[in-house]
Structures are given as structure tokens and as C-alpha cells.
UniProtKB/TrEMBL annotation:
This is Cobalamin binding intrinsic factor. Pfam families: Cobalamin_bind. Residues 1-20 form the signal peptide. Its main location: secreted. It comes from Equus caballus (Horse). It is found in: Secreted. Cyanocob(III)alamin binds at D171, Q270, W386, Q387, L388, L395, Y417. Keywords: Cobalt, Cobalt transport, Disulfide bond, Ion transport, Secreted, Signal, Transport. Belongs to the eukaryotic cobalamin transport proteins family. Transmembrane segments: none annotated. The lineage of its organism: Eukaryota, Metazoa, Chordata, Craniata, Vertebrata.
Amino acid sequence: MAWSALYLVNFLWAMAGSSTQSRSSCSVPSAQQPLVNGLQVLMENSVTSSAFPNPSVLIAMNLAGAYNLEVQKLLTYQLMASDAADLTIGQLALTIMALTSSCRDPGNRVSILQGQMENWVPSSTSTQASTFYGPSLAILALCQKNPETTLPIAARFAKTLLANSSPFNMDTGAMATLALTCMYNKIPVGSEEGYRVLFGQVLKDIVENISIRIQDNGIIGSIYSTGLAMQALSVTPEKPNKEWNCKETMDTILNEIEQGKFHNPMSIAQILPSLKGKTYLDVPQVSCSPDNEVQPTLPNQPTTVPTSASNITVIYTINNQLRGVDLLFNVTINVSVKSGSVLLVVLEEAQRKNPMFKFETTMTSWGPLVSSINNIAENVHHKTYWQLLSGKTPLNEGVADYIPFNHEHITANFTQY
Ligand code: B12
Ligand SMILES: *[C@@H]1O[C@H](CO)[C@@H](O)[C@H](O)[C@H]1NC(C)=O
Ligand SMILES: *[C@@H]1O[C@H](CO)[C@@H](O)[C@H](O)[C@H]1NC(C)=O
Ligand SMILES: *[C@@H]1O[C@H](CO)[C@@H](O)[C@H](O)[C@H]1NC(C)=O
Ligand SMILES: *[C@@H]1O[C@H](CO)[C@@H](O)[C@H](O)[C@H]1NC(C)=O
Ligand SMILES: *[C@@H]1O[C@H](CO)[C@@H](O)[C@H](O)[C@H]1NC(C)=O
């Protein structure tokens, strides 16, 4: 009897896993629907034929139901044409899921990714958790395409996560939850009980780590990790000890959207599925019938406040205490920029005033990343990067999005992850 009960429970989980559980208590109120439509339009319109294709945008628009079919087609073709050899593990995984969400065959990309994950060597147990973000995407993509052959790879990945001792990272925890939930739901009947125990144990640990980081206002981690965390909490078979109030999270996020916090297309791509009650686990179920292009109801354009032409002063420090004994520096400059300028303008103004503040950026899915300052460049092998801080607090946006205030002290500190 106990046996059949266990079987029934497992069976029900398998069913629940095949689609996102209904969360009717946590959907966008109809009054705020135009706000969400506006966000989706903003994301879709960010796509241009010159920019490198962003698979996360295609996944989000397909999960939400695309408005702009031209953009959908363009992104799909660009991704079909991309060469797997130029992509990282995570980018390849996103490309596979994006093509799947457009009902295209990702071709040999799946076997290439599988080969890479079979050879994947997890570094030491103290490796920063965020380095598991790309591999989590890989397990998720492989699970959706080929769950049985992915089992041993996912088991190795899960054991590595369990053994890791570095501080918890919300985005990575959320992505690992999606990946291992997919695997958990697809363990073949009659296979070793060990897989279920292992995946269940890791999921329980991660979900507990997520739940203790739910703030009183519903934000999970930071506002930019909340979208992925919502996806994770809505699919996981392991429920957290502390109950999650999804409606509270939704209300706060909608409020942040109204404040204009989600204008970066990538930030929209990561929040939109949750606003539509979807998760990355729904990617294989997207229906691609060529339905009519529905025109969304958009919000009334908020009257943009004319920005005053006055200037502000930003105190800007560049600090390298890490690399090259004879190259260490810690210098500060005051720069004057137009009020409302993004941080990038401050860096450009500093560079113009003093050549020591010379910097370079690299284009990424999130926009320009500051890759080098005063000839000191980030390096993946050394795990070094330029961290941006306001006072002692790390910024939660990059240079093209963050708007400094008057007399703010911004530091770019060369450090390790
Ligand atoms: C890993 C990671 C990093 C690593 C990347 C290097 C590495 N090899 O691991 C490091 C530690 C360098 C990093 C740095 C920063 N990060 Co970061 N990062 C992530 C994380 C957890 C995963 C990214 C990833 O692997 N994606 C998967 C691959 C397949 O996609 P990809 O496009 O190829 O990934 C690249 C970009 O994401 C880029 N990148 C990573 N972070 C950032 C941040 C910005 C602003 C930009 C432009 C690019 C960028 O590096 C990735 C590897 O090359 C994401 C979480 C998320 N939800 O996306 C946060 C995330 C993207 N980072 C974020 C932030 C805020 C930063 C910093 C600004 C933090 C700071 N105070 O300094 C800095 C960038 C500063 C600068 N020099 O310009 C935010 C961005 C939010 C926003 N609205 O802009 C995120 C979403 C985390 C969060 N939830 O708040 N990050
Ligand atoms: C959960 O958080 C604790 C403390 O930060 C950490 O030791 C543990 O490894 C985390 N577990 C997972 C699976 O991330
Ligand atoms: C760098 O300079 C700042 C401001 O001048 C100072 O507060 C800080 O202690 C310095 N840090 C190091 C490591 O020298
Ligand atoms: C820079 O600004 C700060 C505060 O706004 C001020 O104390 C400092 O003297 C200024 N430094 C220079 C070099 O102008
Ligand atoms: C105001 O800021 C702009 C850059 O945004 C700069 O070019 C200009 O010199 C500043 N004006 C003054 C008076 O500092
Ligand atoms: C700047 O980076 C150095 C080297 O990693 C580190 O020791 C220091 O604590 C960092 N400073 C801040 C303010 O984070």
C-alpha cells in the first residue's frame, strides 16, 4: 500500500512537471496587462539585424506569444545560422532552447553540447557558484532533448553542486532548480532510486536557500533575479519550509516595472515568462501554429519629465590592488556630467579628462561590460573582473543602465569571483 502510494505521488509529480502548475492566484491583474504588453513590445523592438542574436529574447517572446512575427523570424534565422563553435556552453544551451521554442530542429547542436558536458570538469569545491549558471542551462537544454542520456551527466552535476562550499547565488540556484526539476520529472520508471534521492536532495537544499532570501516585499534576491527565482519556485517538487506568497512578489515586480526598472531587453527576457505564468520548462510545449498577429493594448505613454540641463558631480575611483606589483593604482577623479546620464558617460568623461582612466567594453547580451581599465583586463582563467560599486555596495546594473546621483562615489575595483 505504501508502495502504491509512493508510485502515485511520483506519477502525480511527473504529471505536474509536464506543464507549469496553475497559479491563478498569481497572475497579472487585467488593469496592469498593458504594462506587461508594453514591456514585451520594448523587448521585441530592441532586436535589430545588426546586433548579435539574443536567444533569451526569442525564448521569452515565444513563451509569451510573439507580437512581432518579423522579429521572431529574423532571430530564428540568425540563430539557425550561428556556429556552435563560437558559443560558450551556456550560449549553446540557450540557442538550442530558443530554436526549440520556434519549433526548429537544433540539429547537431544537441550532440555537441552533450559532448561538452561529458567532458566538463568542475573546478575546485570553492569555485564561485555563478560559474554553474552556464552548465545549469546546458543540463536544462539536454534534459528537454535527451533526458535518458543526460541522467549520468546531470547526476555528476548535482553531486558537484552538493559538494560546493561557496556562497549561494540566486540566479544560478534558480537555473539549477529548473534543470534538476526537469531531470527529476523525467527519471524513467524502474531506474535506480538513487537518481530521485540525489536530485531531490539537491533541489531541497537550493529551494531552502532561495526561500530564506525572499524579502518582506516579495523580492527574491534582487529585483533582477526575481524572475528566474519565481520560475524555480513554481515548478520545484520540493516545497520550501517557508511558504511563498507569489501575489506579493508579483505586485512588487509590477510596481518596479512602473518605475521603469525593466528597460534592458535582457532584464525583460528574464522577467516576462513569470509575468505570463510560464517557465523555461514549457519550451518544448510551445505551439507554433501561425496564428494572427494580435496587436497588444499598450499603456498610455507616461509623459516624460523634461530632464533639467543641470550637471551633477560624480566621484569616480579606479582601484587595482590585484594585478602586477608595479601596476597597482588607486586614483580618484571628479567628473561633471548632465543630470540623468548613465554611468558610461561618467567613464567617458573621466577618460577624456585623464588618459589614466582609459577603459574598454565588450558587448554582451546584457549590454556593454567594462572589460578593461587603464590596460588591466578581466580574465576568465584568473577569474578577475572589474566590479562596480556605489560606496561599498555593488551596483545591480551595468554602466549603460545605471544612473548615478549627485556626489555619488562610484568605484571600479579589480577583483576576483
Ligand atoms: C556569471 C555572472 C557574472 C560574472 C561573468 C563572468 C563569468 N565568466 O562567470 C561576473 C562576476 C564577471 C559578473 C559581473 C557583473 N555582473 Co553579472 N551575472 C552573472 C550571472 C550570474 C550569469 C551570467 C551568465 O553566465 N549567463 C549565461 C550566458 C550563456 O549568457 P552570456 O550573455 O554569454 O553571459 C555573459 C553576460 O551575462 C556577461 N555579464 C555577466 N554579468 C553582467 C552584467 C552586466 C551589466 C553586463 C553588461 C554583462 C554581464 O558575462 C557573461 C559571461 O560572459 C548573471 C545572472 C543572470 N540572470 O543572467 C549575472 C547578472 C547578469 N550580473 C549582473 C550584474 C549587476 C553584474 C555587475 C554589474 C556587478 C557589479 N556590481 O559589478 C558586474 C559587471 C560589471 C562590469 N565590469 O561591467 C546582473 C545584471 C542586472 C542588470 N539589470 O543589469 C545579473 C542579472 C545578476 C542579478 N540578478 O542581479 N557577472
Ligand atoms: C545553500 O546555502 C548554504 C549556505 O550559503 C551553502 O553552504 C550550500 O552549499 C547551499 N546549497 C546549495 C545547493 O546551493
Ligand atoms: C583607495 O583610495 C580611497 C580613496 O582615496 C581610500 O579610501 C582607500 O582606502 C584606498 N584603498 C587602497 C587599497 O589603497
Ligand atoms: C571632489 O569632490 C569632493 C566632494 O564633492 C571634494 O571633497 C573634493 O575636494 C573634490 N576633489 C577635487 C580634486 O576636486
Ligand atoms: C556638463 O556635463 C557634460 C557631459 O555630460 C560636460 O561635457 C560638460 O563639460 C559639463 N559642464 C560643466 C560646466 O562641467
Ligand atoms: C577591491 O578588490 C580587492 C582585491 O580583490 C579586495 O581585497 C577589496 O576588498 C575590494 N574592495 C571593495 C570595496 O570591495
